Amino acid sequence: GVVLPRDRRGDGGRGPLTLNTMVLGLVPKLGGMAVVATLQFALRRRQRRNAVLASVLLSAPLAGPHLVLEPVCAVYVLRQLLRWAGHPAARQLAFLDRACPLLLDYLRTILRARGLRRRGEADGTDKSKEIAALWEERHEVGAAELHSILEDLGGFYLKVGQVFGIKQDLLPACYTLRLRTLFDQCKADEASYVAQVLSREFGRGDASELFASFDSAPLASATIAQVHLARSRTGQKLAVKVLHKGVRELMERDLANMIWFAKLVQERLGLRFNVDQLSILREYREIVPAEFDFKSEVAYMERIGTRLRLSSSEAAGRVVTPTAVPELCGGKVITMTFLEGPTFAQILDEQERMRDFSGGGDPEPAERLNLESFRPQELLSCLLVAYGEQIFEEGVFHGDPHPGNLVWVRDQNEVGLIDFGECKELDDRTVGLLAKMTVALAAGGRETIADCLDATGVVVEGVANDFKATVATILFDCRMDLPEAHLSPFDENAPEEMRLVSVRTVPEDVFMVIRVVALLRGLMAAFSCDLSASRAWEPFARRALKRLGIPSPVPERGPTVGHHTAASPAPSSSSIRSIIRDMKLLARWMSQRGLPHDRLSLTPLAVHGVTNIRRLAELAMTKDPILDSALARFSREDQRRAKELAVEQEREGIWRDQARAKLQKLEGVQKTTKKKSFKSRLKRLFVSAS
Fold first, then answer.
1. What is the pTM of this model?
2. Mean pLDDT over residues 262-276, rounded?
3. How far apart (Å, rounded) are the C-alpha atoms in residues 380 and 517?
4. N or C: which end of the chain has fewer CB within 10 A?
5. Cα–Cα distances in Å, from 671 out to 424, 660, 661, 666, 683?
6. What secondary structure, in 3-state letters, does 161-172 show?
């Protein structure tokens, strides 16, 4: 090596300091920093403090405390420098810092559950209740931690949380309950910032110069903006949407991080997931900046609102949009008419309180929403028809129909569609491909559906053509009668074909339609409805194919009446109450027998009309395949036990009914005999007297 001068050695004359010795001296320091960085992701904050303190105490007698403190301080300083410089890596590190301990907790729970299962098999005891309790506790804690992580980080992470907040068909109920608050209860900006924005946008000193009244406390706060209630000089109720402070930079930074990570994983490392995440993130990169263009949002809101108002379909006409106030709209502010009524997110929260499976206290009557006339099936049917109008007639659609963006306009019994920041405009080619896909799903065979899926550019690998039709149905239709619609590919009870599914490519123009369908399916699961988007959209799709001169994949057929027709009549309020009552009794029966009884597990049963023990037993005795779909969220062992216990109870009930009928018949015979004997004695008496 190169020998440095003695005055730069710093070794007290103990030997020559070469580049080799310098590198060897840096190795333990870099190794120490790597260990510290790894432990930061693996341990929680309190655990980190304890680990550092213990390491300092243990290393002090051996090599001095600097052995531990140096890498700890170096990692801390490096992270602070990245944060102050606004480097994208700082956000990624902040996410990993919070998410990795959560992931490790789940891994530990998996190992504990496996240990309990093995112990039960060895002892011959049933550990299912202990395992269920273990997972229930883990999910409760995990849901709270994930909500805290997403809310603290903000930015694009909140968008991800909103998507998962409606996946009640896939996630535990505690997760969807927590993440649902991200629809309209995100962190809000302070009143001084809002006043500053209004002043800059309109050149006025105060909100009182613009409105007759302005509520400084936000009515709702979402990922991009917050909404304030105001009144115009004429007394009209208004909603004022104000862009969040610094949210654009956060969103762009988060997307850049995720795209970089997806490229690293998919292109550099060659690792592939079940879904083409890179294409999806690239599509979001195009969409998200448009959410900050409030002028385009106003234009889309007016365009879609006009299309729905002028629609020839009565159902589409029942979906309404706000109307912008042009003179009070700017680059960071949109002022629009206020749609009066609760959001679907608020209705879901109220229904959750009404179910009250946990036995907690009821809210005060004054705080309750009056849902007597709320008909989710009817309103969601109208929403589906409105989306057919948007996609196939106008070529522009609202891309974010989560419960926080849907309002029940109670007085007119209409659906209000709000927040048009995430809209997508389609070219004629994409409209034609989607129209062919819709017609195939509504009226075609499985081979036709698979061919139309290939034509859209969605590449699905690992499955045969027959199951590819099922994948197409899940991607482009929101019907809930498929067992696969209630399962995740990562679910241990999912069929092998579903686990092998790999969606390699999703064209960016098609992705937003798939996302809308996923959100609509989440609404179906949340409100226990079963409607088909393809059936509702088929007339619009056929008209689009004729207009574009594209041959239909399936010849037109006569009108049919089916279970999944969007225009099917909505159930009455008495039948809804009856279903809720029956499901409560069914949940109690399941709970008493150690079977799954949470909402996530029982939703498929309600969807398939299995709302009581008798129906469950009938399907089990006839081995009806619909029961396998209804019990899709049960393990194989729980499915077997539920069927056996229901059949056993039903047979006991039949035996009791037969015994009761025989007893009643015997009593009737005895009464008849007594009457006859009395008449015969009376007759003999008269005969003898004569």
1. 0.65
2. 60
3. 12
4. C
5. 78, 17, 15, 9, 18
6. HHHHHCCCCCCC
